[in-house]
Write a structure and sequence with these properties.
Length: 309
């Protein structure tokens, strides 16, 4: 392995894997780093039905298929929890991990994804191991035949409500407005379920429990001002995501929420550093768009590295 790679790819989600595929096929050397299994968030997705050419595939199966494709080209994911990316005077990027490892590269593609936005109400942290969850696919089974609430009104909240409705006794989706943000097709599927309902115009003010387990949520109806306690065994929170851009925050321009600002070729404010998928501004956060970003950034990175000579 050369000491300075042509390209360092941070994050082995669909975007990072696709960048690795394109860079390798263009003859570039690379290191592909991730702190978890290849495939990123697809591993936590029940099934994928909206990736062109694939009618239906379970999330983990798709993650494996993508990783296997890249492995066949000789690229394995290197384990690394990236703490910081810096740049030397000669333009070389240095990726610092929380261990001893450091990686040097002529170009860098950051596809580190995003993490759940927290509600920030009392009880959320306290009951994280006792009924508060951000992943129905991971934790839904523990609530078999129980009552759960889902917080949020976007695609994730409704998709995961549908998933949970097949396992639990009842799913009440608590949404802060009188209209869901989720795609109509998901809404239609959810409302077909007898055990699914929406608590409209309502916010969760506190998650309450006993003996370390969730027993309910205190809610406020924003229109009427009425408060109530809804009994439940689990609280699934799906109110959006925040970017995992900490490693490059001191290096590149970001928007007020930390999403990396990029141009149409995925290049950040620093030449040779690209951001793809959920970590960049204005991402539609789809597998298809992450893969597209990964290909775009790789094409740009190949041109950049080749121009360096
Ligand atoms: P999202 O689209 O940003 O929706 C977040 C939801 O949470 C919104 O309904 C929002 O309410 C609500 N919310 C935000 N902050 C809140 C707070 N502090 N308290 C209460 N509610 C709050 O996020 P997402 O559902 O995670 O989806 C993220 C992206 O992934 C989207 O682009 C989505 O299309 C995509 N996605 C796609 C699929 C699919 O295609 N199958 C599945 C999952 C996700 P308001 O509506 O009032 O703003």
């Amino acid at each position: 392995m050369p000491e300075t790679q042509d390209v360092l790819i941070l994050g082995a989600g669909p975007g990072g894997l696709c960048s690795a595929l394109y860079c390798t096929r263009a003859g570039l050397s690379s290191v592909l780093l991730d702190r978890g299994p290849a495939g990123g968030q697809i591993n936590n997705t029940e099934a994928v039905e909206n990736y062109l050419g694939v009618d239906y595939m379970e999330g983990p199966e798709m993650a494996q298929a993508m990783a296997a494709h890249v492995e066949r080209l000789g690229i394995e994911v290197t384990y690394g929890n990236v703490e910081k990316v810096t740049q030397e005077d000669d333009g070389t990027f240095v990726v610092h991990t929380d261990g001893e490892d450091k990686f040097h590269g002529k170009a860098c593609i950051i596809g580190t994804g995003s993490h759940p936005r927290y509600l920030g109400v009392p009880g959320e942290k306290e009951y994280r191991m006792g009924g508060v969850s951000y992943c129905a696919t991971c934790d839904g089974f523990f609530f078999k035949d129980k009552d759960v609430v889902v917080v949020g009104g976007g695609d994730a909240a409704i998709e995961e409500s549908i998933y949970l409705s097949k396992i639990v006794s009842s799913v009440r989706c608590i949404h802060r407005r009188d209209e869901l943000r989720a795609q109509q097709v998901l809404q239609d599927r959810a409302f077909e379920k007898d055990n699914f309902s929406v608590v409209w115009d309502t916010v969760v003010e506190e998650i309450v429990g006993e003996n370390g387990r969730v027993t309910g949520v205190n809610v406020l109806n924003k229109k009427t001002g009425e408060t109530d306690r809804l009994s439940c065994d689990g609280v699934f929170i799906y109110i959006g995501n925040l970017p995992n851009s900490e490693p490059v925050r001191d290096l590149v321009d970001t928007d007020e929420n930390g999403y990396v600002i990029v141009d149409h070729m995925m290049q950040s404010s620093v030449e040779g550093l690209y951001a793809i998928g959920d970590v960049r501004i204005e991402s539609v956060r789809q597998i298809a768009s992450a893969v597209g970003d990964g290909a775009t950034a790789a094409v740009a990175a190949v041109a950049y590295v080749n121009a360096l000579g």
